[in-house]
Structure formats: C-alpha cells, structure tokens
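Illustration 12: PSA aminopeptidase.
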Amino acid sequence: LSQARAGIISTVEVLKVMEAFVNEPNYTVWSDLSCNLGILSTLLSHTDFYEEIQVFVKDVFSPIGERLGWDPKPGEGHLDALLRGLVLGKLGKAGHKATLEEARRRFKDHVEGKHVLSADLRSPVYVTILKHGDSTTLDTMLKLHKQADMQEEKNRIERVLGAISQPELIQKVLTFALSEEVRPQDTVSVIGGVAGGSKQGRKAAWKFVRDNWEELYNRYQGGFLISRLIKV
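Figure caption equivalent — predicted structure in token form:
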C-alpha cells in the first residue's frame, strides 16, 4: 500500500495481494487490512468505484465472517472476539445482506430487552443499523444513549452515530455533539465519527466546525482536543 501511495505500483496490485488473505486467521493482519481498505474506500468515495470497492470488501471479509459466526465458540481467545467485531462491522457497513439482517434482528432484541448484546458486538451492530438506518434508528440510538448508565456505553454510541447517511440526520448528530447530552471532552469523538462516516459526513463536519469554530476554540483553549479535532 505504501508503494501504491507513492505511485510506484498500481492500487490494483494491492487489491490482488489483499485477496490472498481470505484464509488468514490473525486479528492483527485483518485489522491492518481493514484500516487500509478504509483509506481506499475514503479515497474512492469521490469516484464511480465506490460501490465496487464495497463489493470487494464483502468478497474479502465474507469467508472469515462465516467462519467466526456471531457467537463465541468454546475456548476461543480475546483476539477472536476482537476479530469477530471487526469483521462483522466491516461487512455490515459494506451492506452484506446476511450481516445486515442479523444485526437488525439482534438490535431489535437488544432494544426490547429480550437479549442484550454482548459488549464486543455492540459497536459493529450499532454501526451496521445506523449506516443503513433512518430517523427512527437514530432516535432509538439517542434514546439508548440517554438511558445508558455507564459512560463506556455512552462513548460507544457517540463514536458510531456518524455512520448515519442522510444529510438531515447527519446535521442532527452534529447538533447533538455540542448539546449538554455530550460531555465536552467527547464532542470531538462525535464530530470525528461524522467526518469518518461518509463523503456527505466529511463535508457536513467540516462546515459545522467552521460555523462553530469560535465556540469549539473557546471550549478547548488550544488543548490537545482542538488538535485532534483538526486532525479528524
């Protein structure tokens, strides 16, 4: 990938190498693949190839997703749990049909209190249902945020809200970022999630930061959070 970024080889060569990892069992390798495919997706979101790269993601991640399944297996280690969350989140965001259907089913059970999602599955499920959700989905997530007893769960929800796709809902998330519902130190995570969520989100987040620059700058007074905000 570094060679492709430097223009030494074609990005097509990178994708061919990535295809060779379909039987890879190691979390660290998949994490790296996921990160690099995320960079490519971001770049290609401005081109006609965006949908094709989503198909590629589904093709590469489907076999490992099927092997891991949704539920922990006896004797598996914590890296398998991390890998499951990573893979299901990647497939869900890319619109993998079976993953999306299962995420919606499990989310419904979670909200209704029938079967609470395990901590390591919450982020991938939340991201999936938001990415392909509507205003009702967002309202449900905001309600879960309000009801959450633990700050960890609030932060988990704040980080994924930016996955929502519709422009008016993106604005609602950005407004929420500066509300009293979100701790000042966590506002950046919400805006960063919007910026990383989609092409529309990036544009909206950039405009939002410019429009609210004075408030944001005064809030963070040149601390590390302002530099993190600019970075995202």
